[in-house]
Amino acid sequence: IKRMKKKYGVGFTIIHNFSAAPLLSLRAIFSKLVNRNAKTVQTLKSYSRERMGGSFYKLLNFVDVVTVPTQVYAQKLIDCGVKREKIKVINSHINTNKFYPRSKSELKSQYNLQGKQIILYYGSMWKNKGTDVLIKAIPEIIRKNPLVLFIFIQSKVLNASYRGNIK
Q: pLDDT (tens digit, 9 = 90+) per residue, 45-70?
């Protein structure tokens, strides 16, 4: 930012920083040293995967605005000492004109899954998400209810499709 300001003679009015770890908000905080009048926005896209990644929540009080994707995440930040007035929840940007809810019964019919109870997991497969616990529970759940079908879609996968029962 300092080099750009010097080279082009421009300043910034908004500096937006995007990360999972609150510690990385230091980039936005330090940018204020060069652009004192700039507003800083820190977007936390998800929870940090690093062991110490979530240990620096109070740093977020030094940026102007913190954006998060869910109300649950906002409450976690408040519980960890981030000022409520700093936090804004910005829900998913899914285009609901293109992607819209479909009838469960029609989808089950389309994929020949009538009568099945489906447990769908969509997200990252990191250990701290608890997917390992869900996977270990599959045999017990199927023993109690053989009509259960598990579908796992890893969030990094763009196209996922049903490929059959997990044995």
A: 877 777 776 678 999 999 999 999 88
Residue 107: phi and psi, rounded to 5, are: -65, -40
Q: CA–CA separation, 63 vs 65, rounded Å?
A: 6
Cα dist. 16→28, 43, 89 in Å? 7, 7, 15
CA dist., res. 16 & res. 99, Å (int): 28
CA atoms within 13 A on the CB side of 44: 34
Helices (H), 13-166: 26-31, 71-79, 104-110, 131-144
Radius of gyration of the chain (CA): 22
What is the model's pTM?
Answer: 0.57
**CA atoms of 48 and 30, how far apart (whole Å):** 21
Calpha distance 41→63 (Å, rounded): 6
Q: Is 141 helix (H, G, I), strand (E, B) or coil?
A: helix
Which residues are within 8 A (CB) of 10 and not within 5 positions of it... i.e. 6 or more apart?
Answer: 4
Q: What are the start-end ranges of the E strands in the chain? A: 14-19, 39-44, 65-68, 87-89, 117-123, 148-154
Amino acid at 56: F
The three-point CA angle 142-146-152 to 5° equals 55
Q: Contact, 122 vs 151, CB < 8 A?
A: no
